[in-house]
C-alpha cells in the first residue's frame, strides 16, 4: 500500500524500514526489482479513501501512526515501475465509487498499453463510510446497493474494453493516412441503473483489453460477484483447514471458470525456529498497541476503546456483557496477564515465524487445500521482501513451489499460461457482440 | 497530447514521425529528455474525453485520422517522465467534470510528491457535448454552470491542498513512533453547491501543495476565472497585435497577481527562408483535407460538410447565404482555385516557416506585447521539437530569450524564481485559515 504503515503497525520506525520514504520513487523501483528477482507474479496495491475512525470514534490514532493514511494514488506509479521491470505484474485496487467508468476504463487501458499488458484491477466496493462521504455520496451506499453498482460498473467498462473497438479496427496505414476504420469502432450505449456511457472507448485495444480481474469481497454477495467476474481472488482464511471450504465454495461459484486463489501471509524468517520466534516476539513488543486497536476496531466492526484496552485479559474474561467478538478474542489469548490492547496487537499480527523450510512446509499445506498462492504482507519493508526472496524463494524453488522463469506474454498469460492475452470467450465481459452501427452519431 | 495526431492532421504518416508509437513509453521519455535539453519549462498535455463529431455530424473523420482520438490518460505518464528528467515540468489538462475533487486532489498531490514538485494542472471546463454525455451528465452543462462548477471544484481542492495539513503536522518521529500530529490535520468540511468533501486530505503536504495552475478559457467568464486563479494562461491570439489587448485584459483581471501568458506557435525551420517555405508547402500538401475540416468544424462551431468542401473558393464567394464564419474564411484565401477544404486546411495550419533568426524575431515580437512564452505545437513529432532545440534555441539563447539554466526548486519557483514553492498568500487558495477542530469526527 502506498502509505507509511500497512499491516504491522508501528514498525515503520524500525531502523531497517524505508517506509517513511513512501513518496520517493526509488523506494518503489527498488521494491519492484526485488519482487521480480523473487519471481513474484505481481505487486498488489491495496487502497482506502478515508482514514479509519472506528476506534475512539476518531481518526486520531490512525493519523498518529500513519496507518494506511496518508495514502497515495497507486495507479500513477505503475508505468514507472513497469519501466524498471520486464515481467512483474501490477495489481491495484480501485473502488467503484471513486471514478466514473468512462475515464476509469481509459486509465486502465492506458496502463495496459504502457506496461505491455501487465496490469490487474482489484475490484472493490469499499466498506468505509468515510470514503462514501468523501466521494460525495453523503455516506456509504448499503452493501447490496454497492454490489448492484459494481455489477453495473463492470458491465460499462467491459463494453468499453471488449466491445467498442473490433480487433482489426486499427489500421495504421501510412500510405492512406488512415489510422482506424470508423465502421469498426462502436459506441457502447450503456444505460444502466447507475451509469450511462456512450463511448466509443478512448483507447484502442490494449494487450489484455480487460485487465486481469482480482476481487476480495468475502460476503455471500461478494463471493457470487467473484464467481461471475474474478480471475483471481484474495481470501482471508487464517488456516488451510478453514480455507478448504472457502476454496470449494469459490470454485463452485466460478462454475468451472479458472480462478487463482491467494491467502494473506506474513513471515518472519530465521536460520532456526528459535531465532525466528525470538525475532517475531521482539518485533511484536515494539509494535504499537494503539495502532493495532485502531486497525482491528475497523475490521472487527467494534470500538475497542469501549472495553478498556488497558484491562487485563483475565479480568475481562469474568466481566458480564462482553460482546461475542471480544469473547472470541479473549478465548484466543494464551496469556492472562496481557491487557486487551496487547491481545489485540497479538491477534492482529499473527505471522509465521520459522526457518525457510518451515515456511515452505506452510506453502505446501496451503497448496494442498487448493490455494494457489500467497499474498505476502510485509512486517518491515523492504526487509520482509528481501528475506523472502533471498532465503525462502530458493527453498520453494527447490520444491517446485515457485516458478523458475516467467511465462511469456501478458499478466493474464503468466497467470494462465497458454491461455492467450484476452479473457476467455465464456467470461461475461465477452458475452456480447459488437453492435453494427458504427456510422451513427449518438445524442 | 497522448494521441497519434494532435494539430497537424495527417502528418503522423510522415517517415520521420514516431506518433504512431504514442503508447510506447520510450516515445515520451525521448521527448521529455529532448525538451529538457532545450530548456523547456514544461511539457503540456492537452486532453479531450470524446471524439470530435461536428463535421458531417459524425466522428468518422476523427476516427479515420486518429485525430486527438484515441487518447491516453496523461497523468500516469508523469512519474515515469519525471524519473528521466531533472527540471522539466509536467502540465496536464483535466476537466472538472471528469473526477470528484477528493480523489483528484490526491492524484495531484501524489504526482507532486513523486516529481519533487514539478506538476501543473491546466484547469478546463470542456466544451464537448460528447464529454458531458460520456461522463454521465446526460449532456454538457451550460457554459455558466460549468464555470460555477469549476469555482466550487477549485475551492474544494484548494481546501484539501492548503488547509487540511498544517506545515508542521508531519513529525516522522521514530522514537515516539508518531507519524503525524492529529491535532494539526483537519477535515475540510466543504459543502459547496456542487461538491461535498469532508477530508482530511489523503496526502501529506507535497512540495508545491497546490500544483502550478494553468488555464486556457478565453470567454469573458473564463478570463475572469483565470484572473482569480491562474498562474499561467494559454491565449489563442494569432498575431502580436491581436494579443496586445488580450494580454492587457488578462493582467487587469489578475489585478497585479503574477501570471505567465503563452501563445500557441508552430514552426517549420529552414536554413534559408525559401527552404523553410518550401518545406512548409510540401508538408501542407501532404496534410489531409478531411481531418482539418473535422478539426476546424469543432473549433469554429460549424459543420463544413454543409458548405460543400469540394466547392472552389471563387465559386463560394459568389454564393448567397454563406455564413459569416465561412465568409471570414473565404476572405483569408489568397488563391481562388482552392476548394473550401483546401482553404480550411491552410487556415488550420498557419505556421511560421523561416530561419532560426526569423523565428527568434517572432519570439521577440510576442515578447514586446507582454507575452511570456510560446506553446510549441508540433508539425511532425519529434522532428519539430528536435529542430527547435537544435537550431532555434541556440539563437534564442544568444539573444537572451531562453533560460541558460533552470532555476532551482519546484516548477512554481522555476516560473517565478525566488517566489518560494507555495502559492502566494494573496492567492484565493490560501485565503482561509485552518479550522481548529482536529479531534472532532464528522458524520
UniProtKB/TrEMBL annotation, chains A, B:
N-terminal signal peptide: none
One MF annotation (Gene Ontology) recorded for this entry: monooxygenase activity
UniProt-listed SUPFAM superfamilies: Bacterial luciferase-like
Gene3D superfamilies, per database record: Luciferase-like domain (3.20.20.30)
Keywords tagged on the record: Flavoprotein, FMN, Monooxygenase, Oxidoreductase
Keyword Oxidoreductase: yes
Pfam families xrefs: Bac_luciferase (PF00296)
Domain Luciferase-like: 2-372
Keyword Oxidoreductase: yes
Coiled-coil intervals, chain numbering: none
InterPro entries in UniProt: Diverse_substr_monoxygenases, Luciferase-like_dom, Luciferase-like_sf, NTA_MOA
Family: Belongs to the NtaA/SnaA/DszA monooxygenase family.
Protein name, as recorded: Luciferase-like domain-containing protein
Biological classification of the source: Bacteria, Bacillati, Actinomycetota, Actinomycetes, Pseudonocardiales
